[in-house]
Design a protein that fits this description.
This protein is about 45% helix and about 15% strand. With about 475 residues, the chain is α/β, with parallel strands linked by helices. The protein binds zinc ion. Zinc ion binds near residues 131 and 147.
Length: about 475
């Protein structure tokens, strides 16, 4: 039987179209999915949208839409992004899906309750009376609600259900310390362990329906609606069929990909829920940083939010994928700018890769190729590239692949096959490029496919221009 590989992204909140940061998460997960397919694994890749919550409910109302219409509209933008970015996900889960998501989440709740890990308690939180909802620190700017800067954020209390995360605190810390549930890169593991040092506290898992009118009702308590943690995190199970036992084919997840604002929930609450359910923990959580735009933090108020769907109207998917994977070091923040994207496209994709393919295919079509030992290909360090991809250092892997492309370009320049018509030299180039195409296929799948097509048989026909200069 094939070894399985299950990879997920987080599910972004469907209150607006996607921004560039999520595109980064998608392409990182996609590289892993495609790479493991090359390794002949049975890959399942899940993404989707998180659609409940008061914010969606109220924004929908303002726009004169039903909550379901509103989230469906936004969810469709995320789906469109996965298509346009050439993401190879097997399924797209929506938390409003009553057939796929709800039954699994209700089952999870019941199991946590049976275990004695759900109890009722008074919850006190920050509340914006303008938004009519509980807000978190993340929603606020300088302690004020950005939509209602004149209103005071109040502390209000209600009775709701809590999950006994504290019960699992020591176990979680131990598992993470030992890398049994590995957090990469290590700085994010240490960050979580620092947060968890004093012990993890119990978390509120529901809200009164007055404060959360749009969500999955708590079983046997119609006045309570499940809060995001308990509900949305469950998608990693419901998306592969839970509670139907077919989920066992892919669980535990091999890799959860998440942003640095999400790792604590995945390392803490999600691990606690799984321990309570008696299920195996994911093998690894990989954490990516945020993107700034031209050196500045993206924010709605400064109006510098970059929408990947807009970029994809102007640039090929492979160009955007290449840029995101090439310039952002694993686990760190990175900067997005269109100038830098165009530079990478022109200098690396068009000049280096595009030219190599074009010159080689033109000459090979003209003069043919003849088999001989490939000394050129020997200079490609496959082991190193494999290791870098397995360590999620995609930027360095691309660096290595492009260093070999440079070697190929120098080789063609020094051997001058246009003068010598040397079929043996052309053979070495052709077979080196085939290997390059295979290595690049997780990163720039469409272009890699075109290159493979050109060199599929020894009867080579030069193809169209791969990367038009911008
Ligand atoms: Zn507000």
């Amino acid at each position: 039987m094939k070894e399985k590989f299950y990879v997920t992204t987080t599910i972004p909140y469907a209150n607006a179209p996607p921004h560039i940061g999520f595109a980064l998460e998608l392409v990182q997960a996609d590289v892993l999915a495609r790479w493991n397919k090359i390794k002949k694994k049975d890959v399942f890749f899940l993404t989707g949208t998180d659609e409940h919550g008061t914010k969606n409910y109220q924004t929908a109302k303002k726009q004169g839409l039903s909550p379901k219409e509103f989230v469906s509209k936004n969810s469709s933008y995320f789906k469109e992004l996965t298509n346009k970015l050439n993401i190879s996900n097997n399924y797209f889960i929506r938390t409003t899906d009553k057939k796929v998501h709800w039954p699994g989440v209700i089952e999870i709740w019941k199991k946590l309750k049976e275990k004695g890990d759900i109890y009722k308690k008074k919850y006190t939180g920050s509340y914006c009376s303008g938004c009519e909802r509980f807000v978190t620190e993340k929603d606020l700017e300088n302690g004020k609600c950005p939509d209602h800067p004149n209103l005071k954020i109040e502390e209000i209390s209600e009775e709701n259900y809590f999950f006994k995360l504290s019960k699992y605190s020591n176990e979680i810390k131990e598992i993470i310390e030992k890398d049994e549930y590995k957090i990469s890169p290590t700085k994010w593991k240490n960050d979580f362990l620092g947060l968890a040092k004093e012990g993890l506290t119990d978390v509120s898992f529901s809200r009164n329906v007055k404060h959360l009118p749009w969500g999955i009702p708590v079983p046997e308590d119609e006045n309570q609606i499940m809060y995001v943690w308990c509900e949305a995190l469950g998608n990693y199970l419901t998306g592969i069929g839970y509670p139907d036992k077919k989920y066992k084919k892919y669980w535990p997840a091999d890799v959860h990909v998440a942003g640095k604002d999400m790792h604590r929930f995945h390392a803490g609450i999600w691990a606690g829920m799984l321990l309570s359910l008696g299920l195996p923990l994911p093998k690894e959580l990989i954490v990516h940083g945020f993107l700034t735009v031209n050196g500045k933090k993206m924010s709605k108020s400064t109006g510098n939010v970059v929408a990947p769907l807009e970029l994809l109207k102007k640039y090929p998917a492979d160009t955007l994928r290449y840029f995101l994977l090439r310039v952002i070091p694993f686990g760190d923040d990175g900067d997005f700018s269109e100038t830098a994207l165009i530079d990478r496209h022109n200098n690396e994709l068009a000049n280096k890769l595009g030219n190599l393919v074009s010159r080689t295919s033109t000459l090979a079509e003209k003069y043919g190729i003849e088999k001989n030992p490939n000394t050129l290909l020997k200079q490609l360090n496959l082991k190193k590239i494999d290791k870098l991809i397995n360590n999620y250092e995609f930027d360095k892997a691309l660096n290595e692949i492009f260093a070999f492309i440079d070697i190929c370009n120098e080789f063609i320049q020094s051997k001058k096959p246009w003068e010598t018509h040397d079929k043996k030299i052309l053979y070495q180039l052709v077979h080196s490029i085939k290997e390059i195409a295979k290595l690049l296929s997780p990163f720039i799948p469409e272009s890699a496919e075109k290159i493979s097509e050109i060199f599929k048989t020894d009867n080579i026909k030069k193809g169209e221009i791969l990367f038009k200069k911008i």
